[in-house]
Amino acid sequence: MTESVKGPASYFPSIEKKYGRPIAEWKELIRSSTLTKHMELVSWLKAEHGLGHGHANALVAHTLAEESGK
């Protein structure tokens, strides 16, 4: 039996399907942004790239956790 993906990464397949970009590309956009705060990045993804709140939140949370080494 395979282990199910939990947390923000559980959104990744639907994000790729809905928005047509790989997760690595979204993470690179987040990392290249001059914004640093979680909700600023979420708002930016929603306003500039048309992501829904849950998808934007999942991408930002996962990317910032990677950046902080968690």
List keywords for this structure.
single chain, 4 helices, 64% helix
Describe this entry's structure for a reader.
This protein is an all-alpha fold and 70 residues long. It has one domain (11-67). Helix content is 64%, strand content 0%. Helix 3 packs across helix 4. The chain is globular and about 35 Å long. It starts with 11 loop residues before the first helix and ends with a helix. The mean pLDDT is 93.
Quick structural gist:
With 70 residues, the chain is mainly alpha-helical. It contains 4 helices and no strands.
Give the number of domains: 1
Estimated radius of gyration: 12 Å
Assign a percent range to the helix content.
55-70%
Q: How far is the first residue's CA from the last residue's CA? A: 27 Å
Mean pLDDT: 93
Molecular shape: globular
Task: Let me know the number of strands.
Answer: 0
Low-confidence stretches: none
* Structural class by sheet pairing and helices: mainly alpha
Query: How much strand content do the residues show?
Result: under 5%
Order of helices and strands: HHHH
The DSSP helix count reads 4
Secondary structure elements and pairings:
Blueprint lengths: L11 H8 L3 H10 L5 H12 L3 H15 L3
